Amino acid sequence: MDLTEPPPLPSVPAEAHTMADNLKTPAGAAPPAPAGSKVQPKKETVRISLPPKPAAKETVRLQLPPKSAAPSAPVAVTPPKPAAPAASDEVVTRLKDNLRSFSGRRSFILENGDVWEMDEPGTYSGPVLKSPEVIVRPGVLGTYVLKVPDAALRVRVRRAGPR
What we know:
The chain has strands at residues 91-94, 102-104, 107-109, 115-118, 122-124, 133-138, 144-148, 153-159. By secondary structure, the chain is mainly β. Strands 1-6-7-8-4-3 form a six-stranded antiparallel β-sheet, with no helix packed on it. The chain is elongated, with a radius of gyration of 47 Å.
């Protein structure tokens, strides 16, 4: 046997059929397309039943008050101003000590003897201020705000000592 030639194929009788020849086309179906032709999909129409549209809602008509014979002058309405804290509630004083850098919670002792503690942790990393002016004023919902204008510091505080 020579390795350069492929082995001979078994012979197939001429009357042999392929599997595709054995397929039977069902009644009413189109015969298969010849090889090499493009197959176009069959277009079908589908009809569905939808529920009826809802009836239009009845229009509601409002009765307006009768117009008076003499037109009234327009009334200017001013919106209410937000309640400002009373001047007596605001405390303007100085810190008893210098304001140094801090991180976390801290107490502030004022020259008038008040002691205020921070409600939340905060930070200040500016320069040391010698006994800076502070303003304590009421905030919302019973809280207070301590401001140090020279340091651009503003923190929520609660009273911790005598007044």
